[in-house]
Amino acid sequence: MTKKKIEVKVTDNEQEVESSTVDEQEQPREEQSELEALESELEEVKAQAAEYLDGWQRAQAEFSNYKKRQETERVQMQSRVTADVLRKILPVVDDFERALATMPDDLSQSTWSEGVRLIKAKLDTILDSEGVKPIETDGQMFNPIYHEAVTYEEAEGYEEGQIVGEVQRGYMLDERVLRPALVRVAKASNTAENKEE
After folding, report:
1. Which pLDDT band, with edges at 50, 70 and 90, does 25 fall under?
2. Among 38, 132, 144, 174, which is 20 to 30 Å from 64 by CA?
3. Partners of 148 in beta bridges
4. Edge to edge, what strands does the sheet with 171-173 contain?
5. Range of the domain at 114
6. CA distance 28 to 31
7. How many CA atoms lie within 13 A of 3 on its CB side?
8. Which residues contact 188 (CB under 8 A, 6 or more apart)?
9. What pLDDT, on the 0 to 100 scale, is given for residue 112?
10. Per-residue pLDDT for 118 more than 70?
11. Are 93 and 123 in contact (CB under 8 A)?
12. Quick one: 183 exposed, middle or buried, by C-beta within 10 A (0-12, 13-18, 19+)?
């Protein structure tokens, strides 16, 4: 062990003080332990910062997902409301179609009947702008996704399961069925069944 004598002279009120010897190996140990303590504290702070960053990133991702979910729900809600309103308009369109179909010939050229046709055309334009399209039934085969059978009847010239006539027009809203078409469906005739037997 090397010992060093340090002399310090301080003049304060005319007193002299001499310092004692200091162990040179103790000084680096103190610095070493202090450095280790600082490094340990730095590692703890880094771990805590990483934890805070991870928590912030998770919160950010959750908020982003929440916003996307809210937007999706808003679009779905708007779509449902639109479909509900359009379903309520469809009976009015049906009434206009029936009125125009049964209008007497002597009234068909009057300005009153022309006004009814214009109102019906406006309704059709509104439905078209919202993406509503009529379901085709003429010559189609019965499909329970798009059609609802009102009657099954024997009809010459039609295959079994083919639509004979439309009772009420059905509509699609984009790719969804807004209202199925009410149709009359052909069934096999009894004579054809008797021949097969």
Report:
1. low
2. 174
3. 182
4. 132-134, 171-173, 176-179
5. 56-130
6. 5
7. 6
8. 154, 160
9. 85
10. yes
11. yes
12. buried
Portion of the chain with pLDDT greater than 90, in percent: 55
Identify which of 153, 158, 154, 135 has the alpha carbon closest to the alpha carbon of residue 145: 135
* 147's tokens: 């059609």
Last residue of a domain, one of 105, 130, 155: 130
Instruction: Enter the tokens of residue 115.
Output: 């006004």
Q: Would you say 135 and 169 are in contact if contact means Cβ atoms under 8 Å apart? A: yes
pTM: 0.62
Verify that 61 and 117 share a domain, yes or no.
yes
Same-domain check for residues 146 and 190? yes
Q: How far is CA 26 from the centre of its chain?
A: 70
